[in-house]
Each structure stands twice: as C-alpha cells, then as structure tokens.
Amino acid sequence: MSKSAAARSRDLIADALVWDAHAGVFPDPEIDLTLLNAWRDHGADHLSLNVGFDIMDRDRTMATLAAYRAWVLAHGERFVLAGTLDDIADAKRHGKLAVAFDIEGMNALGGDIAMVERYHALGVRQMLFAYNLNNAAAGGCHDADMGLSDFGRAIVREMNRTGMIVDCSHAGYRTTMDIMAESAKPVVFSHSNPIALCDRQRNIRDEQIEACARTGGVVGINGMGIFLGDNDIGTRTIVRHIRHVCDLVGTGHVGFGFDYSPATGVDLGAILASRPDYWPAGQRYDTPDIKHAGPAHLPDIVEGLLQRGFGDNEIRGILGENFRRVAAAAWAVKA
C-alpha cells in the first residue's frame, strides 16, 4: 500500500535539509534564545537569525550579535554556530539546529565597509541592503527608491569577496535590480512574497522574481499573514504563493524565509505603531493579532505540495536544497 501524503510529508521533512532563510525574532541581546527550539523541534536544520536592522545602530547590533553568539556556543548540545555547509551537515547528522546570522540593512556598518568582513568573521552570512527606508547604501521599499549608491555597489562587491549572501528583501524595486546586476554571485529575496498575489509594498514584482532566478538565486516565502493575504496563513494560500514562483521560474528558485517569531513577550503591535516611518499606514501593519506561519506549518505545506503533483526532489529543493545551493556559491571564496 502506498503511503499517504501526510506520511510522505513527515518522511520528507525528516530526511531533507530544512532551511529557514530568515527568522523574525526582534533583535535584542536580552531575549532568551530557548525560543530557537521552535525550529529545532519542528524539523528545521538551519536558521538565519536576525541580529540587527536599520533602526538599530552599529553598537546595538554588535551587542546583540555578541549575546546571540555566546548563547548558541553555550548550548552546543542542541545548537551549532554554523559558518560553513559542513557545519550545517554535521548539525543535521547529530539532530541539532545550525544557526547563522543576518542583518537587515546597512546602517549596521556605521559607514565603514570594513565591517562587512568583521561581521562575517562573527557569523553573519547574509545581509540585506535596506530595511524599508533609504540609507547610505540603498533604497527601501517604503521610501523614494534611490537605487544603489556607489557605497552600496562597493558593499555588493565586498559581500561577494568575503562570502556573504546578498539579500534583496525590504529594498526598493530599483535598488533590487541594481543589486542583482552588480552581484557576481546568486542573490536572494530571503523573505518576500509575490506582489501579484498580495499587493503590499514589501512584496516583490514578477520581474524581480525572474531577475533573481537569472542570478541563480532563491525567493523565500514569507509566513507573515499580512504579506500572504488578509492576515491569512492557511496552507492553500502559502502553497499558492509557492506555485506562483514555481510557475514563473521553476521549482529550483523558491524556498522558505518564514520571518517567524515565537512568543517573546515583545509587543509587536506596539513596536510597529511606534515607528510609522518604518512601518507606514496603508500597508496593514496595524492589523490586530498579525498571524505568522512558521516551521510547525511545514507538514501541511509539504502535504499540500504533494497533493498538487510536486515531486519529492522538487520539494527537497524547496525545503532547503535551493538555499543550500546559493550558500555553496555565495560562501565560497578564493584563498
């Protein structure tokens, strides 16, 4: 008797490499990172954890990064600080969660491009160019999009050199097209959904998805309800977003960047309301009780993909092999 879709889903998740390209945990050195068990306990093998965004300055970002590094290193029985693909493979073999870090926006550099290499040395493996608003490097998705500055172009080249994934999420359209033209390595949208299915400034056009695929990159589906639909995190809606990207550019260019955060005691609504410049009116940030899909939703999502005719290898790609391919290219540097 053939296995049910639900059984095949569980087996695929257990066997495949499961990669979440971005967590939405509010970066704060005081947060208790036992919340990372929400990924480990639901089958994730690798997570990119945010240590800063453009609202924070360089000192606050460094303090958060230092605290997160120390916590992960102190809990080696369950977690691995992952700087290489070998670290990730070893973590999976031993039932641990591999954790690397990302930064959302270039204010964390403090105007100093040498900080790219410093952050890389401390475990940052992915950086975004802007967080919603413009900065010295790039234009944001909620701002008058200035494109990449000369400083921004130099950062792309430095990220390529040091071995860091170039990430276009949260940036403006013109900026993302500039980034993808400048980068010599694959580029990602770690947590961005198709604007064709959900009209938000944070989502991305089909042309951006196609340009990303041409670099060899991946679009990570965001699990935040206001970027999927009308605060909708239903399996059918998530699968619809996955299928849209697959129909445009193929199954090799989609993955997951859930932007998920377990309960931390942080009042998300109050944070969003406190900075209407970064989270402007009309973009649904004032939605009560914003819902988030996360790793716990993977069994239902994979089952939905199986029922819609996706093959096992295609699903393995979506679960993690597609992002692994990008990391293999982006993290590799010449001696």
Provide keyphrases for this structure:
TIM Barrel; alpha/beta; two-stranded parallel ribbon; 335 residues
Uncertain runs: none
Under the CATH scheme, which architecture would be assigned?
Alpha-Beta Barrel
Strand content: 5-15%
CATH superfamily: Metal-dependent hydrolases
Care to count the β-strands?
9
Would you list the SSEs in sequence order as H and E? HEHEHEHEHEHEHEHEHHEHHH
Silhouette: globular
Q: Classify the fold: give the CATH topology.
A: TIM Barrel
Domain unit count: 1
Note the gap between the termini.
53 Å
CATH C-level: Alpha Beta
Radius of gyration: 18 Å
What structural category do the secondary elements indicate? alpha/beta
In round numbers, the mean pLDDT is: 96
Q: How many H/I helical runs?
A: 13
Helical percent range? Answer: 40-55%
Largest sheet: 7 strands, parallel
Describe the overall structure:
With 335 residues, the protein is α/β, with parallel strands linked by helices. The protein has one domain (5-331): Metal-dependent hydrolases (TIM Barrel). 41% of the residues lie in helices and 11% in strands. It contains 13 helices and nine strands. Strands 1, 2, 3, 4, 5, 6 and 7 form a seven-stranded parallel sheet that branches. The protein has a two-stranded parallel ribbon with strand order 8-9. The longest helix is centred in the C-terminal third of the chain and has 20 residues, at 312-331.
